[in-house]
Design brief:
With about 130 residues, the chain is mainly α. The protein has helices spanning about 25-35, 40-45, 60-70, 95-125; strands at about 40, 75-80, 90-95. It has a single domain (about 20-125), classed as Arc Repressor Mutant, subunit A. About 45% of the residues lie in helices and about 10% in strands.
């Protein structure tokens, strides 16, 4: 069983913990912007509603990704007057961002099939481990 009961490290040194999906925040942001345009703080809040994310990223990380996505043409922004404060940047998904989001979803779908095939074979060989997964 992988996890805290393991007494040896894996070759990567992780002791069996799944690695974080480093680039996964980008498609998550694009998915939220596909639903509706939003400013950065709203996106941080909405990321918290995704049950598939282990933790909500730091707002600074979200804003850094948004700047990069804008530089790469995947999102567009416009300034919107703030309520009693400075104007806020509102981000929206561009056609390039939509294409990138689709490509990510197709890649995840293909990878899901590969992983399901691996797990099916694993549980065939280790049927007793099914209850702990």
């Amino acid at each position: 069983m992988c996890g805290p009961n393991m007494h040896f490290p894996f070759p990567c040194g992780c002791r069996g913990h799944m690695p974080r999906l480093e680039g996964f925040l980008i498609p998550c942001l694009l998915l939220l912007l596909k639903e509706k345009p939003a400013h950065g703080y709203e996106l941080v809040e909405r990321l918290g509603n995704f049950s598939f994310l282990e933790q909500v990223p730091d707002p600074g990380v979200v804003y850094r990704h948004l700047r990069r996505l804008e530089e790469e043409g995947m999102v567009a922004s416009r300034l919107e007057p703030g309520s009693g404060g400075p104007a806020r940047k509102v981000y929206s998904l561009s056609p390039e961002g939509e294409d990138y989001l689709r490509a990510w979803a197709y890649r995840i779908h293909r990878q899901k099939g590969v992983l399901e095939g691996f797990l099916q074979e694993f549980f065939r060989l280790f049927p007793d481990d099914k209850g702990s997964a």
